[in-house]
Write a structure and sequence with these properties.
The complex is a heterodimer of chains A (352) and B (226). By secondary structure, chain A is of the alpha+beta class. Chain A is built from six helices and seven strands, in the order ααβαββαββααββ. In chain A, a hairpin with a 3-residue loop joins strand 6 and strand 7. Classes of the chains: A alpha+beta (352), B mainly alpha (226).
Chain lengths: 352, 226
Amino acid sequence: MNLLDISIQSRVIIGISAMVFLFSSFLIAFITNQRKKLQYHKNLQAINEQQQHALIEQNLQLEERVKERTIELSQQKESLQVALTDLKKSQLQLIQKEKMASLGEVASGIAHEIQNPLNFVNNFADVSSELLQELKELITTQSLNDAAKEEINSLTGDVIDNLHKINQHGKRADSIVKSMMQHAGGNSMGQKEFSDINMLAEEYLKLSYLGFRAKDNLFNAELITSYDPSIDRVEIVPQDIGRVIMNICNNAFYSVREKAKKNLNDYKATIFISTRKEGNKLTITIRDNGLGISKKYLDKIFQPFFTTKPTGTGIGLGLSLAYDIIKVQQGELSVDSTEGEFAEFTITLLYE
Amino acid sequence: MEAFLLTVMNWSEVWAPLVPLAFLSYKKHQPLFLKPVIVYLFLALFINLAGDLIDVGKQYLPSWLQSNNPLYNVHSIIRFVCFSYFFTALPYTSAGIAKYVIPAVSVLIIIINFSYLENFGNPNHLSGNLLAAEAYLLLVYCMQYYLSKLKNEEDDVTSGADFWVVTGLAIYVVINFFVFLFYVPMLQQDVALAINIWYLHNAAYIVLCIFITKAFYEPSRYQYSI
C-alpha cells in the first residue's frame, strides 16, 4: 500500500498553524467570555441600581406610612385617654350618685319615723300650753293669797315659755323632716310649664338677696347678671328650678357675707349670674367671690346633711336637694372652686 | 556517570509511573475522577515495561516481536482514551461540545492516518502523526479545562487534584506535540538528534508523573472516592 508522505515543511506549517489556531481560539473564547462577564456585571449593576432606587422609594413610602400610622395611633391614644378620663369622671359621678341615693333613702326613712313622734311633741306642747293658759286664768278666779298666786303665775309662765320653746324647735325639726321627706319623695313641688329662665333667675336671685338684706341690712353685694336673650321659654317646673337657684344663691350670699366679715382690704362682695344657650343645652352659672370650697369638700357638698356652716345655721340639705332636682330634670349640676377665691355652680339643662 | 544518567533516562518511562503508583499505595482514597488516570498509570507501566524489555532483549525474540514501536501507538491511544474519560468525568468543569467532537475527530484521524499516511505496525518508527494528533487533542482538552475554570470564576484556580493532572498533561503535550510531529523526519535525517530529542519526551513524561503524584497528594475537594 502506497502511503502519502508529509514533508517537513508541511509538518512545520501544520504544527505552527495548529498551535496558533488553538491558542487564538483560546484567546478569543477567553476575551468573549470576559466581555460577556463584563456585560453581565454591567447589567447586574444596572439592576442593582434600579433595585436600590426602588428600595429607597419603598423606604420613603414606608417611612411616610409609619409617620401617618404614628399620628393615627397618637390620635387614637389621645381619644382613648379622653374616653378614659370621661369614664373615670362618670364612674366617680355614679359612685357619688349611688352614695347620695342611699343616704337619701336612709334620711327619708329616718324622717318618716321621726315625723309622728314629732307631731305628738308639737301637738302636745301646744295643748299643754293652752291648758296651762287656762289654768292661769282659772287661778285668777280662785281665792288664793297673793303670794301663792304670784308663785303659781311665775311657775306656769316659765312652763308656758318652755312649751313655746319646745314648740318652736319642734317646728324647726318638723321643717327639717319635711325637707327630708320632700328630698325623698321626688322633690317636685309643681307641674311643668313654659317659663322664662332669665326672669326666673333674676327673680330668685333678688329674693335671696332681699332675704339676706332683711336679716342684715348692712350687708351689700354687687349683683352682675348676664342673661342670654336668645333663650326662649322652656318647659320646666319653675318652683323646683327656682328653689335650686335660690339654694345656690343663698350659699353664695352666705359665703360672700362671711368673707366680708373678715374686713379684707378692697374686698367687694360680688355675685355673678349668667344664662347661656349652647346647642341643645342651657346653662345657668352662679359665681361668687366668697370663701370658696376646700378641695377636700368638693366631692361631698352634694351629700345630704353635709354642711360647713356652724351648727344651727344650716342643715346640709340645700345643695343635695338642688342636685336631686336637677337630676330629675335630666340635667347636671357641677361645681368649680378655689378655696378663698371663688365658687362657681353650673346648672345644665336640656333645651328642647 | 553519563551512562548511568542515560540509563535512568532510558528507563524513565518505567520508573516514572511507579512514583505516583507508589504514592497511591500510601494514599489509596482518591477522587472518582482520578480513576482513569490511575488506570492509565497501570497500563502505561505495563506497556512501557514491555517496550523497554523488548528493546533490551530483542535479539532473543522472534522477528515480528523485535520492535516496540507499535506499543507506543497503543500507548498513545490508551493515554488519549483514559484522559478523555478523565476530562469528561471532572465535576464542575464543562467540557462542552468538545467531549463529543474530540473523540470523533480522533477516530477520524486514526482512520485517515492509518489508511493513507502511516502503517500501525511499522517496526522502523512509531506513528508520529498519531502521537502528535493525540497530543494536540489532549491540549485542546486542557485549554477547554482552563477556559472553563476561568469562566466559573473559581476563587482558587491553581489547586486541586484535577488542576495538577491537567497542568502536568498540558506541559507534556505542549512539549511533545512538536517532538512527535518532527520525530519521524528527524529519525530519517539525523538519528542521534532524534534520540536526544526523545530524552526531552522522557523528561516531559517524568514531569507528568510528578504532577500526577502531586494530584494524589492534594486533599480531595469532591465527595466521591475510590
